[in-house]
Automatic annotation (TrEMBL):
The keyword Transmembrane applies. InterPro entries: D-isomer_DH_NAD-bd, NAD(P)-bd_dom_sf. Residues 130-307 form the D-isomer specific 2-hydroxyacid dehydrogenase NAD-binding domain. The keyword NAD applies. Keywords: Membrane, NAD, Oxidoreductase, Transmembrane, Transmembrane helix. This is D-isomer specific 2-hydroxyacid dehydrogenase-like protein. It comes from Trypanosoma cruzi. It holds the Pfam family 2-Hacid_dh_C. The chain crosses the membrane at residues 310-327, 339-366, 372-389. PANTHER family: 2-HACID_DH_C DOMAIN-CONTAINING PROTEIN (PTHR43333), D-ISOMER SPECIFIC 2-HYDROXYACID DEHYDROGENASE NAD-BINDING DOMAIN-CONTAINING PROTEIN (PTHR43333:SF1). GO terms for molecular function: NAD binding; oxidoreductase activity.
Length: 402
């Protein structure tokens, strides 16, 4: 199969702005014959592609992704080489929301990848934000300002506080980096026995029910990053909340299915725990009748599963998606060129040292494949024209560093 013969079907319910960026990046760097976007109904939007017989690469996220899977992967009875969908990539880090266990037949022999690791640092920032929200009493400052009231009050520092991370994986490790910088004591609870007692971030690693209970009882912050499985369904319930300190803050950024939301609401109302920061829920959007809506701001920080929704995280996921897809068939020279081109394009958007990378790598691109160098040069010139203030700021920062 030639990489350029495939059609990319994008089925996602992410925001319009991010979706536009997704379409732009994959059209430019993906090497696809066509890029087709779902506008809400996969059955209608992908019908022509399905009937065309062209091989399909499916880029999915959220509810639209599951509907697209069911619609496009219904030819599972055919031999592998005759099936229309050749690869499925999820923009999100998890795959449990698609209920893939119900699509075992449809998905057999289809490569399935996700963006694991792309969102770790962003979610770690949300963990820190949640902690500071409660210990710096952000809601109180906002209320005072709304009332035009000067209200100096005592705050609490994070240094020395104990953090228990339940489900210590890549997100937990990224969080540990930031937590350690704040001088906090971190314990990571893992499903399997760790090979060492303390990892490179200074986190004490434990496993087992007894150790988990001890961590829950001692921690000032309990961070739930459990995966969504049958074993972890509503794992955090009334019993576990009652184990925590009355001053503890519960932070949930893993999977909404892992907590009993009614028990959490009761724990917050009754003062069993001090507060909670919840970004994921069992049902999304959160139903209007959920008791969590009525919890006061000083006890609950509620966000609409948006902790990982940043432009950078989506681009980072797409960078590897396009690179590894192209790696399937492209000659090494062209593949290397595309990798440099995409990386520099990303750097130009997000970083302040892109001009240094541009100069160094441009010489490499000239020797690899000359046409792509001119294409990148044109892109750089256009960005300079469109964002002159950004360019001035970049040069200013570089000058001050020298």
């Amino acid at each position: 199969m030639n990489v350029f013969d495939c059609t990319l079907c994008v089925a996602t319910t992410i925001s319009q702005f991010l979706l536009d960026e997704v379409m732009k990046e994959v059209s430019l760097h993906g090497g696809f014959k066509h890029v087709v976007r779902c506008h809400g109904n996969p059955q209608e939007d992908f019908m022509d592609v399905k009937q065309s017989g062209e091989p399909i690469v499916l880029l999915i996220a959220n509810k639209a992704g599951r509907e697209a899977l069911k619609f496009l992967c219904d030819d599972y009875h055919l031999p592998k080489e005759q099936r229309r969908v050749r690869w499925i990539h999820s923009i999100s880090s998890g795959l449990d929301s698609y209920k893939l266990n119900e699509l075992v037949k449809e998905l057999q022999d289809i490569p399935l990848t996700n963006a694991r690791g792309c969102y770790s640092s962003i979610l770690a920032e949300h963990v820190m934000y949640s902690m500071l929200y409660f210990y710096r009493q952000t809601w109180r400052s906002l209320a005072s300002r709304a009332e035009h009231k000067w209200d100096p009050f005592l705050m609490v520092e994070l240094r020395g506080r104990k953090v228990g991370i339940i489900g210590y994986g890549d997100i937990g490790q990224a969080s540990a980096k930031l937590l350690s910088a704040f001088g906090m004591e971190v314990t990571g609870v893992r499903r399997s026995a760790p090979t060492k007692e303390v990892d490179e971030y200074g986190v004490r690693l434990v496993h087992g029910d007894a150790e988990r209970e001890r961590v829950l009882r001692e921690s000032d912050f309990v961070v739930n990053i459990l995966p969504g499985t049958e074993e972890t369904k509503r794992f955090f319930n009334k019993e576990l909340f009652s184990m925590m300190k009355p001053s503890a803050v519960y932070i949930s950024i893993g999977r909404g299915i892992t907590q009993n939301e009614d028990d959490l609401a009761c724990a917050l109302r009754d003062g069993v725990i001090r507060g909670a920061s919840v970004d994921v829920f069992e049902r999304e959007p959160l139903p209007a009748e959920s008791p969590l809506w009525d919890i006061s701001d000083d006890k609950l920080l509620l966000t609409a599963h948006s902790a990982d929704r940043t432009v950078y995280s989506v681009f980072f996921s797409l960078a590897f998606f396009c690179f590894w897809w192209n790696a399937n068939e492209m000659p090494p020279r062209q593949l290397c060129c595309r990798f440099f081109f995409f990386f520099l394009h990303m750097a130009f958007v997000f970083y302040k040292w892109e001009f240094v990378l541009f100069i160094i790598t441009s010489f490499l691109i000239i020797f690899i494949e000359q046409p792509f160098f001119f294409f990148f040069l044109l892109s750089a010139v256009l960005r300079v024209c469109l964002y002159p203030n950004q360019v001035k700021f970049i040069f200013k920062v570089n000058y001050e560093r020298v």
